[in-house]
Amino acid sequence: MSQAATATVNEEKLWGGGRSPFNVSYGKMMMWFFLMSDAFTFGALLISYGTTRFFSAAWPDANQVFRAFPFLGNNLPLLFVSLMTFILIMSSVTMVLAVHAGHYGDKKNVAKWMLWTIVGGIAFLACQAWEWTHMHGEIGSLWGAFTDVNTPISKYADFFSEKKTTAEALALHGRQAAHDFFNYFFTITGFHGGHVFSGVCFNIMILINTVNGTYERRGHYEMVEKIGLYWHFVDLVWVFVFTCFYLL
Amino acid sequence: MSQHHSNNIQELYEGDQSKLYSGIMAHHTDINSTESKGQVKKIWRVFWILLVITVIEVIMGMFFSHNMPKALVNFFFLALTLLKAGYIVSVFMHLGDEFKNFLITMMIPLTLFIWFIIAFLADGGFWLHMNSHVRAGMH
């Protein structure tokens, strides 16, 4: 608030040159612009998924499709993906703590929290790998397939949303809807997983630079802040993926 | 040629941008100060809020969403999702701490999503309507 108030008072000075009117560095602003464009990419994918769902007469029920948990059984809808969500939120917290330590030039704590963030990212990727492997075992393929062509589609009725899918719609459109659902599921969670993976790589680079004292010599830890923006954005996307695929 | 003889390689490559801005990066020294501890406390508070919202969503999805009107469930989930997104962007990404001009600059393009979502979902719904209608007419 106080910053915003100062901005109004000194508006002419702000735009008079010689300083950043937005009070951000070039790199940080470009990271924000990149994230905005990435938001539209993810938005396009999710809205495309929504459009397909709206024009389908049948649709699978995510609660019935994703209900397995390692070692605990096969009738626990939402539980495993909740764990994944928890891991990602947690790693977002450790990231923001690293950024915080960076603001204070505290090298030791930056390194510590970056390390935990990397651990969280890897744990999330491991969970996703398990989920994909499990889906592969259950449905026989990743993209495209879900139903066995030799089994009547009515055998899969359990997997479909009761509210949306009538028996007639299931017979006519069930197979196509299942294909659409899994194509979008693996494309979008895969694209998100790719972001998590590259985020982990960036985080490792930042950790190495931190430990080597690169940012200490530079006098600021802004790189931690920029990568932190990226990492939080990945968490943000997951919030929407979670809602679109598992809740709605 | 002469500028390549600078002793400070770091400065040559990174540039000293600190005179151009003085954001939340600046003027902090003591991580054990009251201000710092307050910020850390705020971060953990937001963590608990996000966790509680997620737990509410999961409980809803597990036990209640099948017995409630679909529109109400969707409204509930979307409202909670936007609430979570707001906390992440404003606190974790520090957008709430930036200049208001910057915040507005980032938010305006995102309003395109309002059109984007309404237009495409409506199109999908209309397609389903036409498809069922035409098919019914053919029988």
Describe the structure.
The complex is a heterodimer of chains A (248) and B (139). With 248 residues, chain A is mostly helical. Chain A is 73% helix and 0% strand. Chain A has one domain: Four Helix Bundle (Hemerythrin (Met), subunit A). Chain A has helices spanning 2-9, 11-14, 26-55, 62-65, 79-103, 107-139, 167-212, 214-218, 222-247. The mean pLDDT of chain A is 85. Chain B has helices at 9-14, 34-64, 70-92, 100-110, 112-138. In chain B, α2 runs antiparallel to α3 (70-92). The radius of gyration of chain B is 25 Å and the shape is flat. The N and C termini of chain B lie far apart (83 Å). Chains A and B meet through α1, α3, α5 and α9 of A and α2, α3, α4 and α5 of B.
Q: What composes the largest sheet of chain B?
A: none
How many angstroms separate the termini of chain A?
Answer: 36 Å
Amount of beta strand of chain A: under 5%
Largest interface: A-B, 74 and 69 residues
Main sheet of chain A, how many strands, which sense, barrel? none
Low-confidence spans of chain B: 1-6, 9-13
- Round the Cα radius of gyration of chain A to an integer and report it: 22 Å
The CATH superfamily of chain A appears as: Cytochrome c oxidase, subunit III, four-helix bundle
Strand content of chain B: under 5%
The CATH class designation of chain A is: Mainly Alpha
